[in-house]
């Protein structure tokens, strides 16, 4: 049986529903480290010519902006509203996503970057 935490915090104790003490700086720092690890992993599984350079980072940034805009666009149309909210939620709640669904977030980011860079590499 798998339980999920909503990430809600009790004001009086500072404890989350998961029973973890909330430390915003530690959460943000660990999220950034996990993202950097996913980027490094995407580079390692890619072709040997890949490096972390300005072009790859610009591609990742541009595609992330497009991803967010697509989520906003999908949120406005009733048949795709749920999908749009999921896409926007992945961006708006990055730290919470990495805290509660670390493996899923790692796989999503690695797949995202590898796909972008493979298409560009061709």
Can you put this structure into words, describing what you see?
- It is built from 5 helices and no strands.
- It has helices spanning 24-45, 54-75, 81-92, 94-100, 102-121.
- Helix content is 68%, strand content 0%.
- It is globular.
- It is mainly alpha-helical.
Break the fold down into its secondary structure elements and pairings.
Layout: H1 24-45, H2 54-75, H3 81-92, H4 94-100, H5 102-121
Helix pairs in contact: 1-4, 1-5, 2-3, 2-5, 4-5
Question: Main traits of this protein?
Answer:
mainly alpha; globular
Rg measurement, Å: 17 Å
Which whole number gives the mean pLDDT? 78
What proportion strand? under 5%
- What level of helicity do the residues show? 55-70%
Largest sheet: none
Order of helices and strands: HHHHH
Per the principal axes of the C-alpha atoms, what is the gross shape? globular
Distance between the termini: 44 Å
Helix segment tally: 5
* Structural class by SSE content: mainly alpha
Q: What are the segments in which pLDDT stays under 50 over at least 5 consecutive residues?
A: 9-15
Question: How many extended strands?
Answer: 0
At a glance:
Helices cover 68% and strands 0% of the residues. With 122 residues, the protein is mainly alpha-helical.
């Amino acid at each position: 049986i798998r339980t999920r935490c909503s990430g809600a915090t009790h004001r009086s104790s500072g404890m989350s529903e998961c029973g973890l003490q909330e430390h915003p700086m530690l959460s943000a720092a660990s999220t950034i480290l996990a993202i950097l690890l996913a980027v490094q992993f995407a580079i390692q599984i890619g072709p040997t010519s890949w490096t972390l350079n300005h072009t790859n980072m610009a591609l990742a940034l541009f595609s992330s902006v497009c991803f967010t805009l697509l989520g906003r666009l999908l949120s406005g149309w009733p048949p795709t509203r749920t999908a749009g909210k999921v896409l926007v939620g992945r961006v708006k709640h990055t730290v919470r996503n990495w805290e509660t669904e670390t493996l899923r977030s790692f796989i999503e980011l690695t797949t995202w970057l590898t796909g972008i860079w493979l298409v560009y590499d061709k």
